[in-house]
Design a protein that fits this description.
InterPro entries: TSET_complex_member, WD40/YVTN_repeat-like_dom_sf, WD40_repeat_dom_sf, WD40_rpt
Strand order of the largest sheet: 10-11-12-13-17
Oligomer: single chain
Keywords: WD repeat
Shape: globular
Structural class: alpha+beta
Number of helices: 28
Distance between the termini: 94 Å
């Protein structure tokens, strides 16, 4: 129940403390007058200053500001140089503080039966304009510091009649011109009010106190009148009127009461359920008094802790402690709580702080003392305590919920109901929307005076509600958990602290079952429930008033732990079922065979049981587990997960091993009571869809969402930390956290399993139809069943799962997430609104525009966040188009879902996509793409096509998904013909820029050619997808229309990439467009795209055209291979042309530079001399395919003689054939040498990457039919700058020929792949000197 949220050590005593309502900020002041602002969520110090003396940093900053503004001469002593004196009070002030203070005052006054409801609560106009003030009240001055700009303003007491300041309070009912007002209580008993606009004294409250005013508090009476109460050292409590106009400068008290002897220390406002608000005062006489705000009579006076005076008091309302209404503290180590203040008024310690703080924080010989305390106004589970060792923020069970459960609403009723427990009574809460026309269900044309339609307003919706008493009493008034069965016929209440449970029949509220149990969980499919029985109820020891000895405390704690352990070990999970006659029967006496104690039950489609782990785990995990175990876990709301496979891989990998939760959660079947799946980490709560299609498991930092049909599948996890409860509404999960209300839109998508399951169901239906037909009409029925049927092929595309989170409500005044404003161009308003402020104008324009026909159109993507109700909430669900919530005070709240951005999503998730499209007419068209993407994720691509504002690109995707290929083609043609779509650059890709020459005119020509088909080029992939989709659904006309344009783009050089050209060629061949395909080949040849042209010719099946493609584009190596493989008669001519091209590449080319400098430098170069033999004759290059004779002379076969082979010299110009096993041949002649020929064996071909390829050689083709590697060789001509190739034919095994000392250049290597040893390879090379 209790855990440490944050701790900040300090060397001085913390005597003043305050929390910001919406931001995680805390301001403290210690007894040395040092003020510090701390972010308790991120453990960071925001600002620090020494308020009691002179803060040098602020003084220097003020002087620099004056210098920057041009003020050189100081007119006097700056206010920053005035010593502040003792710090009396610290507080925050901004729009959030202002709003929530006013909200608290109004809601407390509205609880009274005689409350006057003048008008609906509306947000006050923003007054601080986004600034956050830190206000410090010191004896000698008041400091107003802006935490945004870090600029401050000091108001010395000389401007407030030169009286010392002792307390302050902000006033919220102020005149029109005053702006924000702050009241200061002074030492002379006068209250002075300062305007934060003019920084001048606005008015005084005089004639009341005789002593120093010590505390101020504003509140609202049940009549609606704004009041101010003050307490002073004279012991008086005086009530003043805060409803004043501009002209009232002096105000006199309305009422004076004698409250305490010795002076009033503090005053606090308490909200009472079903009654008028109360005032709580503490005095120097060590008493606490409670006052009625209607008659202002004293209701009760107690001494909370004997012999010790209280110095802080706070109103508290927490569902885990329903009877504790007041918190107070004295100078000891406890936080004290007062139970039933107006009845028994028992004081008990809420917590012992020495057990909460870190052990090293308190010195062994030092005692912990509390000096101040404050409860969070919006999150009652957070309490901040100032002590002599630092600040402690305690968290009291943030996951406990109010004891209320919603009941099923009759079909024709607009009134909804919920049952709740108050003290020992069972009551019924009835609630419905309080307006004749529900704004969330239509009426879109009715505009309010502010220019906003009623449905789009983020103000609270008016709710009509009432409470009825149920005659059936309940046995206990302690903490209880309520839950309703799946049918709505039964209500289960469990009191974990007793422990006891009762099951009531809703129709007559009779008790159906009861007994001893700590936890209860319902099945979501049938009226059966599981309970955790406890034979030995643990008794909670009550520590008497006053501080008892340490030994007694330890003994009491040990006794409680022993009792809890004994009860846990003897507890068992029992399942009972409720029959139609209202009787309860035991189905299973003990679920599960595990010996560990049970610490949690979660209901749902499967029963989840959490066990206490005994293995050693990390300290971080231990802290989390102890928090989970300390709360009474029960299946409130819904619970569980149907995993047929463990889902650890889905989310536990995101956490570090030190933070990994223990595997202590087991799921059981309600039918067989057998385990389902393995052990899982224990969730904090679980929620199941009513149709058992989805489930959610909540952990501390995220919620895991899974799909259950056709089989368990992990969908993802959403980062919603500290979630307390959730309710499914079809594919919408409404989640409540301590600070926000979120909605998660969920869709499982389409997987292969879904398609297979659908096919199996269709086959099963066909078999059932056949069986029924045979049974009715005999065997003759099969003739009609198996007859020819015209079936249309349906394309089912896979769709990934979708999770989208939208925040509906939060505490912050301004939206914490920007609403993505898209202001319309026509933002001019009517003339009668000319007096409207700029902020109001922007706010109005950002929410609503008026479209044609007077239809209001929201121009924001999502609505501004609504105000979350205060405290823990029970999420009832969606009824009447609004989200219902119930708070701790049993008040129903309605959150509007009528903004079109939310409404359309809710309708689509619910399954009504047609209505979602209709509602989209109220949403700005610039947001239709976003909505269409959402509907596509939900599986409504066809319906999303009807949205009028979607872009053409998204329209094409939707048309493809919905198989509307004619519309997809129309969109594609529109996009490809548009000049405005896709002009991101010049239209040239990186490869096109690299392939083009450096000549400027070529680049211009290429760019102009591409520009003509720019649209088709940009959407080439979409054209190919459309052709494939049309082919799959037998829509040939659409495919041919798209092919026509794609082929036109293929005729432009550099337009399409290689894979796109190949794809278009395949599709042209598939459609029999041979004429268009042959013209495409000719165009590609003309453009010089040999690879793509050859591939297209291969698809066409024309070898001659394929050879022409290689030859005409200069890729002669591929042409030779192709001709050799197919026995083409043009082989000899191709080989000659190829060798001539190689010859030209190795010959030196004259320099292109003709300027004088280049010629002079060339003349200085040393000419490269060759040998006399080479100078006389250079043999031409000749590389031939295997098996082909030499082009110069027939090959001469010489019988190999080992002795003569080593000494004989080859004649230049004649081929030399060597037929011998591998030997080493040495040539002593320095002028000529044999080239190294290393043909690899066919079994181990060398990779082509390892062969050095010259820059002039064409790369090998890796295209399908264009590259010929069916047993034929792939010669790679290799030439060096100093290497020449002659016509010698060498037929030999690999030989090693070391070069002579006179010729240092190595010989070239010609590698052959997949060639047998008997093949003649006419390839050789001569080195150049």
């Amino acid at each position: 129940m209790l855990r440490l949220k944050a701790f900040r050590p300090s060397t001085d005593k913390i005597v003043k403390i305050q929390l910001h309502p919406t931001h995680p900020w805390m301001v403290t002041a210690d007894d040395s007058d040092r003020v510090s602002v701390w972010n308790w969520e991120h453990r960071q110090v925001i600002y620090e200053l020494k308020a009691g003396g002179v803060d040098e940093r602020r003084l220097v900053g003020a002087k620099l500001e004056k210098l920057a503004e041009g003020e050189t001469e100081s007119k006097g002593k700056p206010t920053e140089a005035i010593r502040g004196g003792s710090v009396k009070q610290v507080n925050f002030y901004d729009d959030d503080v202002r709003f929530w203070q006013l909200w608290h005052n109004r809601s407390a006054a509205a609880e009274a039966p005689t409350a006057v409801h003048t008008s609906a609560f509306s947000s006050p106009a923003p007054s601080t304009k986004g600034r956050h003030f830190l206000v410090i009240c010191c004896l000698n001055k008041a400091i107003f510091l802006d935490l945004v700009t870090m600029r401050g303003r000091d108001v010395p007491k000389q401007e407030l009649d030169n009286k010392s300041l002792h307390c302050m309070e902000f006033l919220y009912r102020s005149g029109v011109g005053d702006g924000p007002l702050v009241a200061f209580g002074a030492s002379d008993g006068v209250i002075r009010v300062l305007s934060m606009i003019t920084w001048k004294l606005a008015r005084r409250y005089t004639g009341g106190h005789k002593g120093t005013i010590s505390c101020l508090r504003s509140f609202m009476a049940a009549s609606g009148e704004a009041l101010l109460v003050s307490g002073a050292s004279d012991g008086l409590l005086i009530i003043w009127s805060a409803d004043h106009g501009q002209d009232s400068r002096e105000l006199v008290p309305k009422l004076s009461l004698k409250a305490h002897d010795g002076g009033v220390v503090a005053v606090e406002l308490s909200r009472v359920m079903g009654g008028a608000p109360q005032l709580i005062t503490i005095g120097a006489d060590k008493t606490l008094a409670i006052w009625d705000t209607v008659s202002f009579k004293e209701l009760r006076r107690i001494k909370p802790v004997p012999k010790l005076a209280c110095h802080s008091v706070a109103s508290w309302c927490h569902p885990r402690a329903p009877n504790l209404d007041i918190l107070t503290c004295v100078k000891d180590s406890h936080v004290w709580a007062i139970e039933h203040p107006t009845y028994s008024a028992l004081t008990r310690p809420l917590c012992e702080l020495t057990t909460v703080i870190p052990p090293h924080a308190l010195a062994p010989n030092k005692k912990l003392r509390v000096y101040c305390m404050v409860a969070h106004t919006l999150q009652p589970h957070l309490v901040a305590i100032g002590t002599n060792i630092g600040v402690v923020i305690c968290e009291f069970d943030a996951r406990s919920l109010p004891p209320v459960a919603p009941l099923l609403t009759p079909p024709d009723s607009r009134e909804h109901s919920a049952v709740f427990v108050i003290e020992r009574e069972l009551k019924l809460l009835n609630f419905q929307l309080n307006n004749s026309v529900n704004p969330s269900l239509g009426n879109n044309s009715s505009l309010l005076e502010t220019g906003r339609p009623t449905g789009y307003s983020f103000e609270p919706l008016p709710v009509k509600q009432g409470k009825k008493h149920i005659s059936t009493p309940v046995p206990h008034d302690s903490y209880s958990v309520l839950s309703v069965s799946s049918s709505g016929k039964y209500l289960g209440i469990v009191w974990p602290d007793i422990p006891y449970f009762s099951v009531y029949k809703v129709s007559d509220w009779s008790i159906v079952d009861s007994g001893s149990a700590r936890l209860l969980a319902w099945d979501t499919c049938r009226d059966r429930f599981a309970i955790l029985e406890s034979s030995l109820p643990p008794r909670i020891p009550i520590i008497p008033k006053g501080s008892s000895s340490k030994r007694a405390k330890e003994a009491a704690a040990a006794q409680a732990a022993a009792a809890a352990a004994a009860a846990g070990s003897s507890a068992s999970v029992q399942v009972r079922i409720l029959l139609d006659d209202g009787t309860s029967n035991i189905l299973m006496r003990s679920v599960g065979a595990r010996s560990e104690p049970v610490i949690g039950l979660h209901g749902g489609a499967l029963l989840g049981v959490a066990y206490r782990t005994s293995r050693r785990i990390s300290p971080i995990a231990a802290t989390a587990i102890s928090t989970i175990q300390s709360m009474p876990l029960s299946g409130y709301g819904s619970s569980g997960l149907s995993s047929f496979t463990t889902y650890d891989d889905g989310f536990s990998s995101h956490r570090s091993p030190a933070e990994a939760a223990p595997q202590n959660f087991q799921l059981y079947s309600w039918e067989t009571f057998q385990p389902v799946g393995g052990l899982l980490p224990q969730p904090e709560w679980t929620a199941w869809d009513q149709t058992v299609e989805y489930c959610a498991f909540a952990y501390q930092q995220y919620i895991v969402i899974s799909s259950l049909r056709p089989q368990y599948r992990y969908l993802g996890d959403v980062s919603i930390p500290y979630a307390t409860s959730a309710v499914w509404h079809r594919r919408q999960l409404f989640v409540a956290t301590p600070t926000t209300i979120e909605v998660v839109f969920v869709d499982a998508g389409v997987t292969q399993v879904d398609i297979e399951t659908k096919k199996m169901k269709e086959e099963q239906k066909m078999r059932e139809a056949q069986t029924r037909a045979v049974a009715e009409h005999g065997e003759l029925a099969l003739i009609t069943v198996e007859g020819p049927q015209s079936t249309t092929e349906e394309r089912i595309s896979l769709r990934p799962p979708m999770l989208q989170v939208v925040r509906l409500a939060s505490f912050q005044h301004a939206p914490s997430v920007p609403p993505f404003l898209s202001l319309p161009k026509h933002s001019r308003v009517d003339g009668d609104d000319s007096g409207m402020t700029k902020e109001a104008e922007e706010r109005r324009t950002g929410e609503v525009a008026v479209g044609g026909g007077g239809v209001s159109v929201a121009v924001t993507r999502f609505p501004m966040e609504q105000k979350r109700p205060v405290g823990p909430l029970v999420v009832v669900g969606v009824k009447d188009g609004v989200l219902w919530l119930i708070d701790r005070y049993m008040r129903a709240h309605a959150l509007s879902l009528s903004h079109p951005g939310i409404r359309c999503r809710c309708l689509a998730a619910y399954g009504d996509a047609v209505s979602a499209v209709k509602w989209a007419s109220r949403l700005g068209r610039e947001h239709h793409d976003d909505l269409a993407q959402f509907m596509l994720g939900m599986g409504y691509a066809t319906e999303a096509l009807h949205l009028p504002g979607i872009s053409k690109r998204l329209e094409f995707d939707l048309a493809m998904k919905s198989n509307d290929l004619k519309r997809a083609l129309h969109c594609l043609l529109t996009m490809s013909n548009s000049r405005d779509i896709g002009h991101d650059g010049t239209g040239l890709g990186l490869n096109d820029i690299l392939n083009l020459t450096d000549k400027k005119q070529d680049v211009v020509e290429g760019a102009q050619g591409i520009e003509g088909v720019q649209g088709i080029v940009k959407f080439a992939k979409e054209f190919l997808d459309l052709i494939d989709a049309a082919d799959a659904t037998a829509q040939g006309e659409i495919a041919r229309e798209a092919l026509k344009r794609l082929a036109a783009a293929g005729s432009v050089k550099g337009a399409l990439q290689g894979h796109e050209l190949r794809g278009s060629a395949l599709r042209l061949a598939n459609h029999g467009e041979l004429t268009r395909l042959s013209s495409l080949v000719n165009n590609l040849i003309t453009l010089g795209l040999g690879r793509e042209a050859a591939f297209s010719a291969a698809v066409l099946g024309d070898n001659a055209l394929m050879e022409k493609a290689w030859q005409d584009t200069g890729m002669l190596a591929e042409a030779v291979l192709h001709a050799h493989a197919h026995g083409r008669p043009t082989l000899k001519n191709l080989v000659q042309a190829w060798n001539q091209m190689l010859q030209r590449e190795v010959e030196p080319t004259p320099s292109q530079k003709t300027d004088a400098t280049a010629a002079f430098l060339a003349s200085l170069e040393e000419p490269k001399l060759t040998s006399l033999a080479e100078a006389g004759k250079k043999p031409p290059i000749e590389i031939l395919p295997p098996g082909m004779v030499s082009l110069n002379a027939p090959p001469i076969s010489i019988q190999k003689k080992p002795a003569s082979a080593q000494n004989s010299l080859p004649q230049p110009g004649k081929p030399l054939a060597l037929e011998a096993p591998p030997t080493t041949t040495e040539t002593p002649d320095s002028s000529t040498q044999l080239p190294e020929s290393a043909p690899a064996p066919a079994s181990d071909p060398p990779p082509s990457d390892s062969t050095p390829i010259p820059a002039a050689a064409p790369p090998e083709s890796n295209l399908g039919e264009a590259s010929v590697d069916n047993g034929g060789p792939t010669p790679t001509p290799v030439s060096d700058e100093n290497t020449n190739v002659n016509g010698e034919t060498v037929q030999a095994e690999p030989t090693n020929d070391p070069t002579s000392p006179e010729d240092p250049s190595p010989a070239a290597e010609v590698s052959e792949t997949n060639v047998p040893n008997s093949t003649t390879i006419p390839a050789s090379s001569d080195p150049l000197v």
